[in-house]
């Protein structure tokens, strides 16, 4: 058996692989099967912070926005978010920036709340963007930490706002100057501003303290939120 | 080095050597040029100085150099004893983290500045937005440090809370040094323009003026008159009513969406930039989102901008500003809890009052 | 087994090995190696602000960073493995591959896959942004968001078909052999199955069926299986094949090789999740991955012991026999990386070095320091035999060896040392820039180490070119694996 073709082929080749696959891939998939995977439309609909940033881009760069996206609508925002993610992947942003706050090394102090499973259960995390290396900072709580125009300048030429940054320049996200982001530029900024915008601690700053609203008021706001999302 | 190589080149034995030596020289030149230290940074004079007669310009620069030093050897005007090491350290931190936007002279004119809205602060007027002092007063040192440490949420000013405490202290000192330099420059330029001359005494007067203004600020911290009442639906509703009654919507819009999203123009700030009122729904209150922060924004207004002080607007109702603050806080929390706001100016003015800038407050410029 | 191979009626080399395809695969592999190194150089210079090409879309260091890893895995390693397999499998089982035309078809198809990968990653995003028709496509023309699997989604099916054909082509002769097989053949059989399954799992599941954390688990499996179930079994199989031939003596222990194979087969696939410790992946799975990783270290030790025991007593060969030295060096690095594995997979260590350059150093040591060194050793051994002439220059071969191995040693040591620095910078909660500025000297040293490795390969390329010219001048016959009459003097070597 140990030296025969069928033994090697069936037991080692297929059998052990299947065993590993079942235990290491299928088990987590089954464990999380009840967590719904959100679509981009859902993500936009329930995330008002994101819409604020998207609208802010439209107000800051009216001509460029008009040219590439037209109106500020949830559909357009979803489109920008998807293109932004596609760009994030195809430009290999995720090779130098992680999206995953670990419960060690006091990362909570630096980045904000430790990452939870639910945060990744959406179509924009397919494949998941945990990341592999941190040349630059983790981005999973980057949304809202800086203004859209900071990101625009930074993408155009990182050293313009961050001395000594080894990040490459991405002038092809712009029509010639940092105040003219093109379709990909607006999309990528939208995507970066989305990261972490679902958290209650958004925008996360080192000394973030929640607004001390009593439950009563929060509940009424949440009711209002549901109504506003339905309309 | 250069001379030596040039000599070697000129003594070339044959054309073939010329080519090789030429390369050596060229490479050496490039290498040496690359290793050369960057030119020492210099402060830039403001337009006010540029408009003076040439010899007056020279005098102003001389005085500035004497009292404020250079970027590499800065001096803090008005300090009893110069902590040179601290200021140099501050200058180094500033070069690394601040100069890109705020510029070498603190004129808010760094490389990236032209692409940023709101524009990076120009310190030279000595006007700062987020202070704990009354409207029109200078900030306290703590206010500047707080802004550096926390950043200005929702703008391009990031938080520098991760800097070592000592660096924060140092860079705050350096920002103060740049500010005082700018203030002195303004006063000297005005004096020189008016008097047609400049002497040591005038400079001393100017320095005294600056010192007394900052001293005054330190003694005039705005503290709430009453302890904050608990946040309740009633206090929020009362705040909402006051928001209407005091016509906050004229700048902030009926839905609180502010000038940029609401399309409401309220004129320029003292730095000459368009200054739309803040979007209170953004969930990113620029001056901080603690109740006391919001209280101070309402009570003392925002320096340099059309946002007036409401400290004396409610003589009969000591809780009124707190109620407004509660309303603003609940508004600021809405997006985080998922409330969607319709985009654009669409939602502005349900009662028909086409929002327009009203100069109900004195011109910000005059007051500063 | 060796007795069996020596029988007179056995088929000869000329009836077994298609030499031109071995040469073709090797030359292609080296071309991709050069491309990959240039891509790495681009990223390395970017990090130290020396990149003169910053800001050019088609030379974006980000895109070329993906070229760097993908080309080295699927361009260099895969092609070099295929070349070595075309030599060793027929000679091992004494049967030619299933179909010679299929072999050449696979060769062309695989290069098409690689060119598409290259084209997709470098040009895809640009084309899609500028051509309206492409913009409307529901999928990205550019890279896929899976580490080591950035091959764009639209090429994945083609690549998978290619892997299937490879398996069929080599399994043909293997299944027709009778009786128990030599250890190399076990590894090869398993590798064909595993590579196919791994590629399918890693590229399709997280893209189309799973999101979030569970996709992360699959991604971890994929990264690790790619090393553990594609590169490692092929590498070990080739070591078990070539080392006894080079040393002219059998491996030390058949029993150990059994333990090695079955241990690898069982424990290696269970390792994947150790890439994502401290993530929201369930903790018991993380523990399981850690335990099986440590188990793999035991398994690996058996292979290393087997190798060193085989070489015991032939120490002189390390000086005189360059291919043996390549294998030996690779094996030393292998011992080091595996020692590293056992350390870095623990939660304690992960807390410090995850996301740092430690991992990058480790990856270079595995991919270049172990498997590439072995493959370069195989090439050093085979080129003269394929062209039936001596190497043009022994000195250049020495340069190739020393520049490659010392360059790699410096690079790996440099990056591995940098890892804890970065980890401590981060944990100290200083501003982020502190870690970037602190890395600069290490990153600069890395550029020069990389240049040394590249220079080594250039020596090798030149040597190959000159050797080829000499061989052509001599006009030696070429075996295509289809000749009928064996020449009298050449006997099978193994």
Describe this structure in words.
The complex is a heterotrimer of chains A (231), B (368) and C (494). Chain A is mostly helical. Chain A folds into 2 domains: 1-31; 39-230, Cytochrome c-like domain (Cytochrome Bc1 Complex, Chain D, domain 2), CATH 1.10.760.10. Chain A contains 9 helices and no strands. In chain A, helix 3 runs antiparallel to helix 8. Chain B has 368 residues and is mainly alpha-helical. Chain B has 3 domains: 2-35; 47-218, Cytochrome c-like domain (Cytochrome Bc1 Complex, Chain D, domain 2, Orthogonal Bundle); 233-367, Orthogonal Bundle (Cytochrome Bc1 Complex, Chain D, domain 2), CATH 1.10.760.10. In chain B, 48% of the residues lie in helices and 0% in strands. The longest helix of chain B is centred in the middle third of the chain and has 31 residues, at 165-195. The radius of gyration of chain B is 26 Å and the shape is elongated. In chain B, 46% of the residues are buried. Chain C has a domain at 14-179: Cytochrome C Oxidase, Chain A, CATH 1.20.210.10. Chain C contains 17 helices and no strands. The N and C termini of chain C lie close together (10 Å). In chain C, helix 4 (61-93) runs antiparallel to helix 5 (100-130). Chain C is mainly α and 494 residues long.
CATH top level of the largest domain in chain A is Mainly Alpha
What is the fold-level CATH name, i.e. the topology of the largest domain in chain A? Cytochrome Bc1 Complex, Chain D, domain 2
Number of helices of chain C: 17
Rg of chain A, Cα atoms, Å: 21 Å
How many distinct domains of chain A? Answer: 2
